[in-house]
């Protein structure tokens, strides 16, 4: 890549970077007020980040290049539990040099999941694994900043042995070995200069939008947003379903009227159905020609997804899942069993970029496309790197990526879609960071939004919510 296209590309790697403090922030955006994110399972979420900052010895607290930023995504209550888990996991990083962690990032990853007492309340799933995603991504962010490169470029520049070193092969070496990784890397290298040129022209990752399709939106709002998205260059659109069959048919009919037959429609049920119910329901929606059904049933039901996939094949409907599939072992089994047409790993639910890369590599081996889950605050900012890495050096295929608009401008380098394609991130780092003013305004424990009158209906809506004055885990 032309180095001139990367902002602030100077490296700070000459300095020995030592992690000296871990800081977490419980940041919550009141999206339940607008129904952004509403679906059949999640009626009114408040998009939140359990945020992790790794402060270093470089003495300029205002310079974001020298602080590693990572986060995981939740939808509100319980975000404080993830923050506390981040502190528990990241404490052993204090005093460690960055180079001692990145020299063998696969070994570092294994070390972080190996505290046996913390492992007991996972292992590699749930709150602990969400927290691991934030910590691991913060290390990657710091590493990329130190090297003066956006994460996708840092990874694309690695040689194959460095890539092999990123992967923890425990539990997956029955389907993916170091030699498989070498073979994939060498095969996909062919023609990568052409793909790199496209990435540099912001044509590496095609976007689809979920922004019009939330279940809580009125017909008028949905129609306006679909029209706006179509005019902005989108060709692929996702709608939430699973509330009521008649309502879904009505909404899909409206969508087809706006988009015509050329627009590609996807639908997402967010796990509300059992296996048989999913099959029967989707047969009813087949007339609207959905490209795939996302999360038709429990994310843990590997065999059930296979049953649904077989039953929907005659209707031309593919099956997708992944946003709540919690680790590489489950992705391995979905692939081994032929349960799935499309994998949708989340940048934070699995254990950060190391595990994401492992899933991309397994998907490439089984020739199943990855269309990462981005439906949450901060997720498009991370997943665009994943999809570029996938395109450049893993699958070589230009797969779709989800874009959700509404909170992108909270970040230093917001995800942006132009003419239906993601703009390529160019600032060194991975998440790079949330804007300081946004973090302060929506800090759940701070003196901003959550202490205003506007916040009260949300806080009063749930008897278990202790609010900003509830107990903190540092007390
Ligand atoms: Mg979804």
Describe the structure.
The chain is of the alpha/beta class. It has 2 domains: 18-149, 2-Layer Sandwich (Enolase-like, domain 1); 178-422, Alpha-Beta Barrel (TIM Barrel), CATH 3.20.20. It is built from 18 helices and 12 strands. It has helices spanning 79-90, 98-102, 105-112, 116-119, 126-147, 151-156, 160-164, 178-189, 192-200, 219-231, 245-259, 275-285, 302-312, 328-336, 352-366, 379-394, 436-442, 456-460; strands at residues 19-28, 48-56, 67-74, 206-209, 236-240, 264-268, 290-294, 318-321, 342-343, 400-403, 417-418, 421-422. The strands form 4 sheets. Strands 5-6-7-8-9 form a 5-stranded parallel sheet, with helices on one face. Strand 11 and strand 12 (421-422) form a beta hairpin. Helix 9 runs antiparallel to helix 16. The radius of gyration is 21 Å and the shape is globular. Mean pLDDT is 92; it is low at 1-10. Bound molecules: magnesium ion. Magnesium ion binds at residues 268, 270, 294-295, 323, 375.
Helical region count?
18
CATH class of the largest domain: Alpha Beta
User: Could you give the order of the helices and strands?
Assistant: EEEHHHHHHHHHEHEHEHEHEHEHHEEEHH
CATH topology annotation of the largest domain: TIM Barrel
Domain module count? 2
Instruction: Quote the beta fraction.
Output: 5-15%
Please tell me how large the radius of gyration is. Answer: 21 Å
Overall pLDDT score = 92
- N- to C-terminal separation? 49 Å
Name the hetero compounds present: magnesium ion
Low-confidence stretches: 1-10
Shape, please? Answer: globular
Strand order of the largest sheet: 5-6-7-8-9
CATH A-level architecture of the largest domain: Alpha-Beta Barrel
Query: Sheet bearing the most strands, described?
Result: 5 strands, parallel
What is the CATH superfamily label of the largest domain? Answer: Enolase-like C-terminal domain
Helical residues, percent: 25-40%
Q: Name the structural class.
A: alpha/beta
Q: How many strand elements?
A: 12
Organism: Ascobolus immersus RN42
Domain Mandelate racemase/muconate lactonizing enzyme C-terminal: 219-315
Region (Disordered): 455-475
GO molecular function: hydro-lyase activity; magnesium ion binding
């Amino acid at each position: 890549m032309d180095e001139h296209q990367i902002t602030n590309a100077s490296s700070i790697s000459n300095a020995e970077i030592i992690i000296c403090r871990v800081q977490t922030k419980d940041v919550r955006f009141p999206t339940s007020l607008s129904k952004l994110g509403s679906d059949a399972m999640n009626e009114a979420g408040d998009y939140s980040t359990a945020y992790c900052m790794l402060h270093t010895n470089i003495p300029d607290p205002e310079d974001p290049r020298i602080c590693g930023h990572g986060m995981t995504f939740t939808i509100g209550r319980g975000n404080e539990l993830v923050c506390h888990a981040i502190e528990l996991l990241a404490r052993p990083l204090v005093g460690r040099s960055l180079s001692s962690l990145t020299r063998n990032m696969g070994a570092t990853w294994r070390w972080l999941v190996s505290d046996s007492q913390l492992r007991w309340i996972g292992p590699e799933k749930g709150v602990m694994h969400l927290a691991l995603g934030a910590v691991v991504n913060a290390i990657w962010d710091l590493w990329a900043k130190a090297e003066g490169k956006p994460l996708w470029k840092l990874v694309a520049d690695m040689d194959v042995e460095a890539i092999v070193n990123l992967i923890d092969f425990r539990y997956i070496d029955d389907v993916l070995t170091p030699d498989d990784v070498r073979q994939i890397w060498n095969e996909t290298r062919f023609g990568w200069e052409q793909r790199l040129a496209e990435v540099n022209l912001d044509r590496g990752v095609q976007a689809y939008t979920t922004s019009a399709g939330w279940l809580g939106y009125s017909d008028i709002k949905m129609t306006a947003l679909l029209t706006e998205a179509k005019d902005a260059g989108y060709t692929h659109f996702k709608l939430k379903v699973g509330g009521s069959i008649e309502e879904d048919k009505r909404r899909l009919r409206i969508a087809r009227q706006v988009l015509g037959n050329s627009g590609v429609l996807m639908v997402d049920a967010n796990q509300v159905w059992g296996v048989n119910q999913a099959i029967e329901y989707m047969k009813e929606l087949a007339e609207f020609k959905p490209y795939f059904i996302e999360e038709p049933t429990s994310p843990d039901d590997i065999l059930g997804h296979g049953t649904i996939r077989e039953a929907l094949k005659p209707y031309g409907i593919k099956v997708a899942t992944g946003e709540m599939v919690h680790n590489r072992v489950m992705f391995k089994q979905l692939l081994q069993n032929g349960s799935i047409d499309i994998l949708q790993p989340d940048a934070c639910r699995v254990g950060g970029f190391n595990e994401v890369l492992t899933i991309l590599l397994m998907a490439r081996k089984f020739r199943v496309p990855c269309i990462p889950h981005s439906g949450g605050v901060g997720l498009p900012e991370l997943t665009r790197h994943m999809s570029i890495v996938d395109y450049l050096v893993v699958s070589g295929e230009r797969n779709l990526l989800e874009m959700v608009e509404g909170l992108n401008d909270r970040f230093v380098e917001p995800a942006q879609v132009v003419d239906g394609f993601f703009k390529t991130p160019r600032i060194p780092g991975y998440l790079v960071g949330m804007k300081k003013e946004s973090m302060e305004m929506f800090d759940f424990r701070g003196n901003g939004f959550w202490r205003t009158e506007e916040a009260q209906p949300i806080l009063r809506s749930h008897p278990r919510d202790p609010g900003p004055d509830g107990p903190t885990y540092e007390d």
